[in-house]
Amino acid sequence: MVFKALVLGLLFGLLAKETLAASCPTILNSTQRALNSTNDVNLCEQFQGKVLLVVNTASQCGFTGQFEQLEQLHNQFKDQGFSVVGFPSNDFNQDLGSEENTAKVCFLDFGVTFPMMARSSVKGQQANPVFFEIAKQSGVSPKWNFYKYLIDKNGAVVGVFSSGISPTDTKITQMIEQQL
């Protein structure tokens, strides 16, 4: 009897995981390594059903100060099903050095608590799966660091914001509120 219950429990667990994978939006259908870590993040498990602001970052860019506003935005809406997700990249030669240095800038210098993925490419054929899908959906690859992409609960890109737009600009905050 106990064995039967255990087998049924495992079977239901596997079916639930398959259902999750089958219903996962393409934009979240990957596993990424967390910044300066050996831990992997299954984006579907972590973010499915949430509104996201996906940002390509660089630790030595003139826009690096936006980490403060990104953190403010994350804290303002995180309890309502929202998250900022950062993707460091050296595609524009502004995130040089080690991933450890990138993590120091994010976590120690700016106090970032939102999820940061490992450094990866965010444009062209080498783009990680998230940014490949962002470009496919929106037609806009990052032209510089700190491009911001608003992703709705269903995994669709619903807003694109260039580097020069502050994360706390009312255009962004109002769109987040509408999506929540």
From TrEMBL:
GO molecular function, one term: peroxidase activity
Domain Thioredoxin, residue spans: 10-180
Database matches in InterPro entries: Glutathione_peroxidase (IPR000889), GPX_AS (IPR029759), Thioredoxin-like_sf (IPR036249), Thioredoxin_domain (IPR013766)
Keyword vocabulary terms for this entry: Oxidoreductase, Peroxidase, Signal
Domain of life: Bacteria
SUPFAM superfamilies (alphabetical): Thioredoxin-like
Cleaved signal peptide residues: 1-21
UniProt similarity note: Belongs to the glutathione peroxidase family.
The name this protein goes by in its record: Glutathione peroxidase
Gene source species: Vibrio barjaei
